[in-house]
# Entry
Amino acid sequence: MPSPEDIIIQERKEKLLNWIKLKGNPYFQSFSPDIKVEGIREKFSYLEKGEKSGIVVSLAGRVIAQRVHGKAAFMDLRDGTGKIQLYGRLNSLGDKYQLFSRVDVGDIIGVRGEVFKTHTGELTVEVEDFTLLAKSLRPLPEKWHGLQDVELRYRKRWLDLIVNPKTREILLTRDRVVKTIRDFLDKKGFVEVETPIMQPVPGGATARPFSTYHNALGRNFYLRIAPELYLKKLVVGGVEKVYELSRNFRNEGIDRFHNPEFTMLEVYQAYANYIDVMQFTEEILQKVTEAVKGNLKITYNGKEINLSPPWKKITFKDALREIGEIEVNWEDENELRKIAGKYGINAEELTKPQILEHLLDKRVVPHLIQPTVVYDYPYETAPLAKRKKEDPSLVERFELFVGGWELANAYSELNDPLEQKERFKEFAEEKFIDWDFLESLEYGMPPTGGLGIGIDRLIMLLTDSSSIREVILFPQLKPRNQVHNNQEEW
# Structure
């Protein structure tokens, strides 16, 4: 027995066939609207209730609601800028009224008509002519009862965008964020570049890479885990201010903060250090937040966060002691493992720097709701960062935490080729050492400050989204084994 949805689909196919007989194939139609919904609202805002404009416009979009009352039909039409009411009546449309009244929610149509304002004050287009541009054969989910399955929203993002205004707003917010970042950096004199996604050596971060094989070259390659080493090679080459806004790939777990494919901003500036980068980070995030929110106060997870600089700054060691209530001797690895066990961290297979960062994540980071810079990390946690001159057991590194999670990571970049070589030998597998990068350092890299900002996490923060999947249009998901109706023959 066919399901209710199957019955609706069959009815819509019959409507399509009927339209083709009467008007021709709608998928061959073209239509050139002369205005968008947003333009109508701006141009005709002056109309009084019940007033006609005397101006005919043409617009196109998707029908998202429909109400038929005998010889009159009302519809809501939405384009990329908003929605507006359509009004069609038998007296105006004549023979076309029957077809107009049978338009389904989800159909894409083009219309021509006069703009007026109803007696209730709603801007409306009285339809004089219309054409079907694409038939929606599948019914859209009902507004309140339809697309509630969160996973289904991620799998069918096109449907999510049609029925959920917040998803559209997240998409537009992401666009504003990226444009603001580029504009800010361009005005500061930074050069945007593109570096290889497919790399012979995965470097610039500690993570498990995705691997592939290039037949023509007869060798393995890896999807990049970070563009860092390539960008620093450019600094060596004299590109003193450089950035890349790009996709990175890490073959690791998936959770509310992690997706295997994600977007990072990496910025490098010659003759700067991590103190300069702290100020730079405050400035760029201030610009982005103001562009998106209009001010520096946001709400995330029910808590108000004020991004106004200057932000709180605390050393790694003080953060563990004062916030995490942990007094720790970094040199005593056995003691570290005992403390980790006390707080439910399985440290059996963790290295010393991993234990320290797990302790920070467990005991400190959840408390860092307001923007907080944690700086001066143990040198083992950052093999590419410069040691502190005053205390070589530390590196000039900071992380920015907001809302209880990490948003940015930065260092004074290690530019000593001899020490960098020793660090690689100490912390990296030999097959993952980028010898070309080491050679480039031997030509001399100026003192440099580097910054990485997780763009997806930034969008999460600015849109009050609880999962990274909300802000990535097509997140990676486990396969769902099911037969889809669209795999069947008509």
Observations:
- The chain has two domains: 4-134, 163-324+364-470.
- Confidence is low (pLDDT under 50) at residues 485-490.
- The domain at 163-324+364-470 is CATH 3.30.930.10 (BirA Bifunctional Protein; domain 2).
- The two ends are 16 Å apart (CA to CA).
